[in-house]
Design a protein that fits this description.
globular; 4 helices; dioxygenase activity; four-stranded antiparallel β-sheet; alpha+beta; Jelly Rolls; metal ion binding; AlkB-like; seven-stranded antiparallel β-sheet; dioxygenase; disordered C terminus
Length: about 260
């Protein structure tokens, strides 16, 4: 294992304790070399002289661009059955399944209770400085576990409560700082009951041990000691398990292979 990876013995050691439900943060989930390879695959460059990914399926939105792997969800929120490409399985997905939840059951991982026992869908988002995403919930199409690996730049994820009338609060209840090469896992009520979003700003401000929920788990808190951070391009890989899977996807893959 690379010396720049620092995995906990179990996820319980990476729990963000101030959050109301289970959330985990690992600052050094992948190495710098793995980060470079992933970015190269995503952007389809050959700078590292590695096998390139298929043509990137970028969708350009008004506030970011994204790719979906292996495909978009259908209208009924199902996924056509198709495997993730190897570069999205290793090192991230395989490492997720190797990290035990706690010491009492070393065989149980974060996806042990999901329908397919592991992630089958990856959403890749690219955020330029000043770009973000409105507070939202991910919905019922997915098992309530979200695993996000950050590449390239830090930024702050904001977590919002909802009011009794169903509208969201105007200010975030919690803020999580996501560093490059880090892994953030959110589960349970944090997935189902709270909204999450990324502010459309060029600079994250008001950063300290009081305002940032995972401050004690950061790799380099000294970088943010002035209380602010200027963003650069940040790319995220979000791994989830889509509950409904259509076997039609396997048939289509077979026809394409002929």
């Amino acid at each position: 294992m690379s010396p720049s990876i620092n995995l906990p013995v179990c996820l319980e050691d990476a729990r963000i304790k101030v959050l109301p439900t289970a959330a985990f943060y690992i600052s050094d989930f992948i190495s710098k070399e793995e980060e470079e390879v992933l970015l190269s695959k995503i952007n389809r460059t050959n700078a590292l002289k590695i096998q390139t990914a298929p043509k990137p399926k970028w969708k350009v939105l008004s506030h970011r661009r994204l790719q979906t792997w292996p495909s978009d969800l259908t209208k009924n929120n199902s996924l056509l059955d198709s495997p993730l490409p190897g570069w999205l399985r290793d090192p991230v997905a395989s490492r997720l399944l190797e990290c035990p939840m706690n010491m009492s059951n070393m065989k149980q991982h974060i996806f042990s209770d999901s329908p397919h026992g592991g992630p089958n869908h990856v959403l890749i988002n690219e955020y330029q400085p000043g770009e973000g995403i409105m507070p939202h919930k991910d919905g019922a199409a997915y098992h309530p576990v979200v695993c996000t690996v950050s590449l390239g730049s830090s930024l702050t994820l904001e977590i919002y409560e909802t009011k009794d009338d169903g509208t969201r609060e105007t200010t975030p209840k919690f803020r999580i700082l996501q560093e490059p090469r880090s892994l953030l896992i959110t589960t349970g009520e944090l997935y189902t009951d709270y909204l999450h979003g990324i502010a459309e700003v060029h600079e994250d401000v008001d950063l300290d041990h009081i305002t940032i929920a995972n401050w004690d788990l950061l790799r380099s808190p000294e970088i943010y000691k002035q209380g602010n951070f200027q963003r650069s391009t940040r790319t995220s890989l979000t791994y989830r398990d889509v509950i409904k899977v259509s076997k039609l996807g396997a048939k289509f893959s077979m026809f394409k292979a002929r």
